[in-house]
Design brief:
- This protein is α+β, with helices and mostly antiparallel strands.
- Helices cover about 25% and strands about 15% of the residues.
- The protein has three helices and five strands.
- Strands 1-2-3-5-4 form a five-stranded antiparallel β-sheet, covered by helices on one side.
- Strand 1 and strand 2 form a beta hairpin.
- The longest helix is centred in the middle third of the chain and has 22 residues, at about 60-80.
- Bound molecules: zinc ion (ZN).
- Zinc ion binds near residues 6, 8, 50 and 101.
């Protein structure tokens, strides 16, 4: 997908309308479409630079985007009176990512708001065995962190 095909890039370029609530040099935040909102005040936060997902993000991309997530989360507490937030992201094949421009959902929470944060049940597919050992082995073989596009 090129940025011209990306609805989030079109919002950033003001080609598509959106209700923008925050913007700085590197990140932007706007409301999802009404049918996609989990709560009043649910917002998306994303880097202005087109990245498909977490696996294309550099340290600088992450620093800028998470800093914007924090600023927006503060606004949900201070402006809306939220008592907490959930921060959601989907990245990579089979993660249920629907728009392939890296983004976080920031969902304000209140006592008794009826949202369920954690899905019930457990995954029936994926790695089996000593998963902690496999992850530790990965890190023991790697001398530098990822900082740029990686694809599984
Ligand atoms: Zn994009």
């Amino acid at each position: 997908m090129t940025p011209a095909d990306c609805v989030f890039c079109r919002i950033i370029d003001r080609i598509e309308p959106a209700t923008i609530v925050f913007e700085d040099d590197t990140a932007i935040s706007f409301l999802p479409l009404p049918a996609d909102r989990l709560a009043d005040g649910h917002v998306l936060v994303l880097p202005k630079r087109h990245l498909r997902d977490l696996f294309e993000a550099t340290q600088a991309d992450l620093d800028a985007t998470i800093h914007a997530v924090r600023r927006v989360a503060d606004s949900l507490r201070e402006a809306l009176g939220a008592t907490g937030v959930n921060i959601l992201n989907a990245s990579g094949q089979h993660s249920d990512q629907s728009v392939f421009h890296f983004h976080f959902h920031v969902v304000p929470r209140w006592r008794g708001d009826g949202l369920r944060t954690w899905p019930a049940g457990t995954s029936t597919h994926g790695a089996r065995g000593d998963v902690a050992g496999m992850i530790r082995h990965h890190f023991s073989q790697r001398t530098t962190p990822n900082d740029g596009p990686t694809r599984a």
